[in-house]
Amino acid sequence: MSNIGSYEERVKDFSWSIAEKELDYKEGNIINIGWYCSDRICKMGKAEKLALIWEGLGGKAKTYTYNDIRKASNTIASFLNSLGIVPEERVCLFMDRVPELYIGLIGILKSGAIAQPLFSAFGDESLLVRLENAATKAIITQRKHASKVRKILDKLPNLKYIIIVDHDNKKPLLEHEVAFSLENTQWKE
Q1: Are 103 and 80 in contact (CB under 8 A)?
Q2: Among 42, 49, 76, 166, which residue carries the largest CB count within 10 Å?
Q3: How far apart are CA 133 and CA 22, in angstroms?
Q4: CATH number of the domain at 33-179, please?
């Protein structure tokens, strides 16, 4: 038995009004799940609560509060909007499990675009099929995965931007590539 009871018990007395009350939803309100995942929690007085703990190779750790997530995802949404990404266009997340993956998902949703997470171990063909079928406009990735995208770029006429989150300026960016770093960007309120 789970902490929410059985499925049958939940369905028997289900009402959308429970969710509407929990989410403070009023008829006609626009629902943006990105906002609900960060801004709403901050407005509930939990802005400084720990939201994400990430540990990378060698024990390198990063922590983010809900307010950090709110501001970082606002920054990503603003960046996407500045590139001309509009609501309902697809933005792919193609990277390892780094903070930009999770925060990027929320930022994409806040921008109104459709998030398209893809497994970073995909090869060229798998990646091509998914990006082509979705008419993806932008892909957010890491340096180590950018070469997979470059190999298939000529087959993706809808792909306008390859956003590299860890560009180190050692090699120049190629056509369609832009650098974006949460660590080196002033976060938006």
Answers
A1: no
A2: 76
A3: 36
A4: 3.40.50.980
